[in-house]
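Usage

Read records sequentially. Each one opens with the input sequence:
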Amino acid sequence: MYLRNALRAATALSLIAAGGAWAETLTIATVNNGDMIRMQGLTDDFTAKTGHTVEWVTLEENVLRQRVTTDITTKGGQFDIMTIGMYETPIWGKNGWLVPLDDLGADYDVDDILPAMRGGLSYDGTLYAAPFYGESSMIMYRTDLMEKAGLTMPDAPTWDFVAEAARAMTDKENEVYGICLRGKAGWGENMAFLTAMSNSFGARWFDEDWNAQFDSDAWKTTLTFYLDLMNDAGPPGASNNGFNENLSLFQQGKCGMWIDATVAASFVTNPNDSTVADKVGFALAPDTGLGKRGNWLWAWALAIPAGTAKADAAKEFIRWATSKEYIELVASKEGWANVPPGARTSLYENPNYKDIPFAQMTLQSILSADPLAPTVDPVPYVGIQFVAIPEFAGIATEVGQEFSAALAGQQTAEQALEKAQALTTDAMEAAGY
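and closes with the structure output:
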C-alpha cells in the first residue's frame, strides 16, 4: 500500500513538473562547437520550465555526422533529437525519417527565421529542422599584423590579395602563420571549405550531365593555389586541422587570417578566450572576379528522428533552444555578442545587436550565398559547400582524404585530383547517374 501511494505521489509530481505532461529524459546528439557547449550549460532553464531532463551526447563534427547518419538509416533509436544541417535535412525529410516541425506554435514565429535558413531546412515547404544558429563563412584577420605588413584589407578582397597578405604576415620563427584553413579530411571539414573555394575559381563538382569535373583546369587551379598558400603561409600539421583546431590557433595569436564560419566571430573577439580579441577585423570571403565568392551557407539545426517515442517533449526542447527567448537568455548571461547568430531576422533588427562589430558582415555573408546557383557555370544540383544528393557525403569523405593527403605532402595535387575524378565517377555510375 505504501509503495503504491509513493508511486502515485511520484507520478503526480512528474505530471506537475511537466506542466500536465509526462516528464521525459531526452537524449540529444550534438557537435562540440562553442554555442552548443553554451546551450548545455543553460538547460536547467528548460528543465525548470518543462520538467524534462536532457542527456547530451557531444561529438566531434565528423563523428557526429557518422553517428547520426548511421542511427537514422538503421532506425537505431539512440537519439530523440539530432543536430544536423542543410545537407541532411531535405533528404531525410523526403525519406520520412524526420518529424515535421509544422506545429511549433504561433508564438514561436517561424516566419522570423531567415528565409535562406528556413528554405534550406525544409522539404516541399515543410520545416523538418529548426536552426540553432546559421552561418556563412568570412575572413577573420589580425588588424595589427595587416598593418605591420603595410596592407589594408578590403571589405571584399580577391584571393590574390589574401595570398599576398598571408605570405607578408607569416613569421614562422615566432609561430605566426599568415593563414589558417581547414585541412582535416571530411565532407563537412576540408571539403566544405574547398568546395566553397572552388566555386569562386569557376570549378564545380559535376557538369549538367552529372559527369565529375575534378579533371578540369578550374579544380587544378583551386587545389594548387590552396596547397601552395598553405605550404608557404599555413601552420604545421594543417592536414589535421578543422574548425576547432584553427579556432584555437587563432585565439592563441598564431593566425594572421582565418577563413571559416561566421559563427566563430564571437569566439575570436571574446577576451575571456582570445588573446587577440581587440585586434580582429572581418571581410567577405574572397573571389577571383568571376562572380562567385568563396563563402558557404549552413545551419546547425535540431531535428527529431521519426522513430522517437518522445516527439512531443523533443518539440518542447526545440521550441526552447531555437526561440527568441533563448537568444534573450544567452544575452542576459553572456552578453549580446555571444548569442547564436544567423537564424532569425529579428536579431539583426535588434538595437542591442546592431553595433556588434561582426553582425553586419555576418548577415551580408549569409545574404550573398546562393545555394540555388552556387557556381559560375550551370550545375544540376543545389548546395554551395555540398551537393544535395544522398551519395555526396560518402564520395566527398573519400575526396577529402585525398586532398588532405596532398596537404600532408603524401601526393601531388595532380595525383589527388586524378583519384578524386576516378572515385567520384565510379560512385556516381554505381548510383545510376
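Summary fields computed downstream for this record:
- Residues 17-135+298-354 form a domain with the D-Maltodextrin-Binding Protein; domain 2 fold (CATH 3.40.190.10).
- The radius of gyration is 22 Å.
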